[in-house]
Design goal:
Layout lengths: L5 H12 E8 L3 E8 L2 E4 L9 E2 L1 E4 L5 E3 L1 H6 L7 E3 L13 H6 L3 E4 L5 E5 L2 E3 L1 H20 L2 E9 L5 H13 L3 E7 H8 L7 E9 L4 E9 L2 E10 L4 H17 L4 H5 L1 H20 L2 E8 L4 E8 H25 L9 E5 L6 H11 L12 H13 L16 E5 L3 E6 L7 E7 L9 E7 L9 E8 L12 E7 L5 E7 L5 E5 L8 H13 L1 H30 L6 H17 L5 H38 L1
Parallel strand pairs: 1-11, 11-12, 13-18
Antiparallel strand pairs: 1-2, 2-3, 2-4, 5-6, 5-7, 8-9, 9-10, 13-14, 14-15, 16-17, 19-20, 19-22, 21-24, 22-23, 24-25, 25-26
Helix pairs in contact: 4-5, 6-12, 7-9, 7-10, 10-11, 14-15, 14-16, 15-16
The structure holds adenosine-5'-diphosphate and magnesium ion.
Adenosine-5'-diphosphate binds next to helix 7 and helix 9.
Length: 624
């Protein structure tokens, strides 16, 4: 028998219990990754899916649906389907003028500059909705890895301020995750490509996702990532590419169909799906079909489109991203030649015109080996591994994206920690009083780059009281800012002569209180089991629904070839299956699906043959 040391036994046992993951909580898609041995891997579920749409839909019974089925409900029940919640997290209503015009669900003002999303009688914070996405990602990871997942690194855009980071962390906690660290998306992407091992260098991270574009210029030196500049357009992404195709189709549809019809939610939903599919096909093929077939309302539209035509439609959008690249580089006081590595991130960088234009602009080959929609999660997984004691030789530090300071007499902003300082860090400064006999001072903590306090974001206001009365300028008040590795700020203030002290963990003014987070964590644990079961039940019912539709179609397609006996077996099995959708017990529903799949297998074979025959016929007639 092999001798195994106790040490390795216990660590092996531990490894079995828990996995630490990296999570990319995206505006349009979210996903998790982990490090398997030494290799970062994305979590792929049993259907081969990696991405979870960042969409949460609430049914009439207030069941929560997340991901693909939620996205399907999107345009059909827009008021109760929340997408792009990342646009709202950690932001007050006054920051959201442009977003609110685009979101079909109701967003209300709430206490402490928070917003809440109104879903029927409930009013949810963006943190809670984001937590639903995280819970889903966590549950999928647990299922696939067959271990518990309680610790995670979550990524955020480089431009996220303290409040947005804190809110993201709270979302993680509500989902039952211990958030080891919040890191910048471009930093994670660079990490996935192993660029941290560069002794020194400047890299650009070009990230074109579903609804947003970000360009970040980073300097790497011995594992420290410094964001030299970050810029972008929060309203530019793959959705806009889809829209060009939707516009094209609706303009052409208007010639034969009434306009109101084309604007109906069902048709818009179909248009959006068709457009996205065609766009993605054009990333791999020179031509694709843009096709919408609906029975109710009756709509039929088919058109071929070439990549060249599509490029023409999206060219102005792509050009805009290049303009941002130029500005970001000049903001960092650099020229394109100085950039050594260019990392491509985001599903939309799969569009050939995008990579061509970016390559042409930088004049060097791009890093595109990893899947662009997976790199951020992969890098987060590497960071998670480092933080949990793996990859010992690596060290990664982020920097704070915005300066932190306090308001001085007359409404100025005095900066203690400058933006781009690597964290953790601390800084102190001495202040004094302006009026004779002043016994208290306001400590108004600010974040931002502007000179006037009113132009910066207020993180909170506290009073240092009971200072003994002294002439103006006599008291010596030392203010110390301590910024931890997660970018969370603690402020200490003390008056030298009296020894009066004040210590505050800064609670961002539009964040949640500790009690609120704790309550949400509690509630989510209390509901965890029934939540999971409810969601599984909904998923299974949806599956039955689509099996039903697919079977009807298959019976139709095999009309001439399907033996009568098989037809009646399948029809009977289908009736049983549809009845099973009404059951409560998820195991029974799953069993019914398995039974049906077995009974209908010969039909699936016949259908494949029928489809192959049709394709062959079409090819033959095309060749003739
Ligand atoms: P996020 O905005 O959440 O960061 P992603 O980086 O996953 O999202 O990007 C999502 C976008 O990428 C969507 O608009 C999607 O249609 C697009 N996309 C995904 N695959 C392709 C492809 N093969 N070709 C073109 N666009 C794609
Ligand atoms: Mg992204």
């Amino acid at each position: 028998m092999a001798v195994v040391s106790i040490e390795s036994l216990t660590s092996a046992a531990k490894a079995h219990k828990e996995a630490v993951v990296g999570i990319d909580l995206g505006t349009t898609f979210s996903l998790a990754a982990w490090v398997d041995g030494e290799v970062p891997k994305v979590i792929r579920d049993e259907n081969g899916q990696v991405l979870v749409p960042s969409v949460v839909s609430f049914t009439d019974d207030n069941d929560v649906i997340v991901g693909w089925p939620a996205r399907e409900r999107g345009l059909l029940d827009p008021e109760h389907t929340v997408f792009s919640v990342k646009r709202l997290i950690g932001r007050g209503r006054e920051d959201l003028a442009r977003e609110l015009g685009l979101l079909p669900y109701q967003v209300e003002d709430a206490e402490r500059k928070l917003v809440r999303i109104k879903i029927r009688e409930n009013r949810l914070t963006p943190q809670e909705v984001s937590a639903e996405i995280l819970k889903d990602v966590k549950a999928r990871a647990e299922k696939v890895l067959n271990r518990k997942v309680t610790k995670a690194v979550i990524t955020v855009p480089a431009y996220f301020d303290d409040t947005q980071r804190q809110a993201t962390r709270d979302a993680g906690r509500i989902a039952g995750l211990d958030v080891l660290r919040i890191i910048n998306e471009p930093t994670a992407a660079a990490l996935a490509y192993g660029l941290d091992s560069k002794k020194k260098g400047i890299i650009a991270v070009y990230d074109l996702g579903g609804g947003t574009f970000d360009i970040s210029i980073l300097r790497i030196a011995k594992g420290v990532f410094q964001v030299l500049s970050t810029l972008g357009d929060t309203f530019l992404g793959g959705d806009d590419f889809d829209r060009t195709l939707m516009d094209l189709a609706s303009t052409e549809l208007k010639e034969t169909h009434p306009e109101e019809l084309i604007k109906s939610p069902v048709v818009l939903q179909a248009l959006k799906q068709a457009a996205e599919k065609t766009k993605q096909e054009l990333s791999s093929f020179e031509t694709a079909t843009l096709q919408i077939q609906l029975d109710d309302p009756k709509i039929s539209y088919v058109r071929q489109i070439s990549r060249a035509e599509f490029n023409e439609l999206i060219c102005p959008l792509v050009e805009r991203t290049i303009e941002f690249c130029k500005t970001a580089i000049s903001d960092a006081r650099l020229t394109p030649e100085r950039i050594e590595d260019i990392v491509m991130v985001g599903g939309s960088t799969r569009v050939p015109l995008v990579s061509n234009k970016v390559e042409e602009f930088f004049g060097k080959p791009l890093h595109t080996d990893l899947n662009p929609d997976e790199v951020v999660a992969l890098g987060a997984a590497v960071q998670a591994r480092i933080l949990s004691g793996g990859f010992k030789e690596m060290m990664v530090l982020d920097v704070t994206p915005l300066s932190l300071g306090i308001e001085t007499f007359g409404g100025g902003m005095s900066k203690l920690i400058m933006r781009n300082s690597s964290i953790p860090t601390r800084a102190s400064e001495q202040f004094t009083t302006y009026v004779d006999g002043q016994t208290s001072v306001d400590i108004h903590v600010l974040q931002g780059e502007r000179e006037l306090a009113e132009d910066c974001r207020s993180l909170g206001k506290w009073k240092l009281t009971d200072i003994p009365a002294m002439p103006a300028n006599a008291p010596k008040i030392t203010v110390t800012f301590i910024l931890d590795a997660n970018g969370v700020l603690k402020v200490d203030a003390s008056e030298e002569r009296s020894g009066k002290e004040l210590s505050i963990e800064v609670q961002p003014s539009s964040g949640l209180t500790e009690e609120e987070v704790e309550r949400m964590v509690r509630e989510s644990i209390e509901h965890a089991k029934s939540d999971v079961e409810n969601r599984q039940r909904i998923d299974l019912r949806n599956e039955i629904d689509s099996i039903g539709r697919a079977t009807v179609k298959a019976l139709e397609q095999t009309r001439d070839d399907c033996p009568e006996a098989l037809r009646s077996t399948v029809e009977k099995a289908l009736i049983d299956l549809l009845a099973a959708a009404e059951l409560e017990d998820i195991h029974q529903i799953q069993q019914a699906i398995d039974d049906f799949n077995e009974a209908s297998e010969p039909l699936a074979k016949l259908q494949m043959d029928a489809v192959a025959k049709t394709v062959l016929r079409e090819e033959q007639s095309a060749n003739r």
